[in-house]
User: What shape does this take?
Amino acid sequence: MDKTYNKRRITAKKNVASSMHSHKMGATRLYNDLHNAVVGFNDANARVAVFQYPVYGFLKTLVEGTTDQYVYTGIGLYTIGPDKGDKVTFGYDQSKFKNSVMHLEGTDHTPMSVGFDYPWAETQYLGSKEAMGAITKDGSIAAAWEVGAAGDYDPKDNPTEVKAMLDVEFKPAYEVVYNNSTCILGVTETLAEINADPVAWRKRVAENGKSYSELEFWTDGVYDLYYYNVQEEKFKPNGINLLTQLNIQNELTGLDIDTKNELFKTRRRENFIANWENYWDKDDAIFHDVILEIIAASDNFKKNNYPYKFKPLAEGGRWCRRQDDLDSIFDVNNQGFAAKLYSVLMGDKTATGSGSVFRGENSIFHTLVHECFKEEKKQMAHRIFDAMAELSPYGSSQIDRLVGYIQNLF
Assistant: This one.
C-alpha cells in the first residue's frame, strides 16, 4: 500500500448530527490529492488530509433461545479510516522527525488566540487539557490550541517542555500574525473612557461592519494598541506602540485619524509580507484558503484548523496545514442542513444575518492572507483548476474534465 495510506489505528463513525459522510470522504481526498499536485508533498511524504472509506454497518444480534444463530440488521452508512491524529497516516512516526514534529488543532471558533487575536504573553499551556489558550476570569484556560504532537514530549505529562517548545517554534509564527493585525481602529476616546463601560464598547460596530469585539484600538496622539483582556474584563495596552513598531513618527502630519489608521494597516501588511515566510509555508497557506473557498468549506478557518511542521524553524521547517473535518462544504452547513447558497464569498452573511457564512473568517491569519495576496490567490485558483482537470478520469474539454473530477469524488 502507498506510504501515504498507511495507518496505525482506524475508527468507524456514524455521526447523524454532522454533514453527509460522502462529503467528508470526497473532500478529504480532494484536499490531499490537489495539495500534492499543486503545492507538493510535505517533508514526510505523508497525507495532508485523513483517508476515509465508506462501509455499511450491520448490527449482529443473537437470536433469542439460541447459542449460535444471529440476525444482522443494517444500521446505515459509516466512514472508516485513521483517526485525525494517527501518527502513521500523517508521518509523525518517522524517526528523523521524532524530536521536532509539532501538530496543533484549533478547538473552536470562539476562544481567544485561536484566531491569532490575543497577546501570546497572556496565554498559558495547561498539560491536563493538552492545550494552550487565554487565561479567563476564574483563572482557568480557555483551550484554543490543542497540542497533538510536540517532539518526543507527552503533551499531558511534560507541560514544561511542551511550553518551551511552543515558545521557540510556534510563538514567532503566531506573533508575526498577531503583531501585524489589520483589525485595528483609531479612536478619540482615552483608555479610561473605553474602560468606563467595556461591555457596551465591544457591542459597537465600525463603519466597515466589523464588531468592536473583533478590533484592537489606539487613541489619537498616543498610538498604543489596546486589547480586551478576558481575565480582567477590560482593555489593556498590548505592549505595541504603532509609531515605534512601524517607524513612521514623521509621516502623520496633517493626516486625519482614518487616514492614519489606513497607513498603519498598510505598513503592517508590508511587514507581514516581508517576514511571514520565515515561519509559514506561503504556497501551503494560500492553497489552504483558496481550496476552502472553492468548495465553500465554512467551518475550517479556526476550528478544524491543523497547523503542523516536521523540522525546527532553524532548520527550514515551516508551518503548514492539514485537514480532517471537511464535511461542511458546498451548500451544507456544520449542522447538516442545506442552508448555504451555491455561490458564497468570504464576507457573506447567513440567511438570518446573524453570522458569517464562513465561520472563523475573522481569524487574523486568514484576514492577512486575504488582504496581502489577492493576485496570488487568483493564480492559486487557476493552478487548482488545472490540477483538477489533469487528475480527472473523465472528459476531453477543460470543463468536462472539471465536472468529471468532481463527479468522481462526490
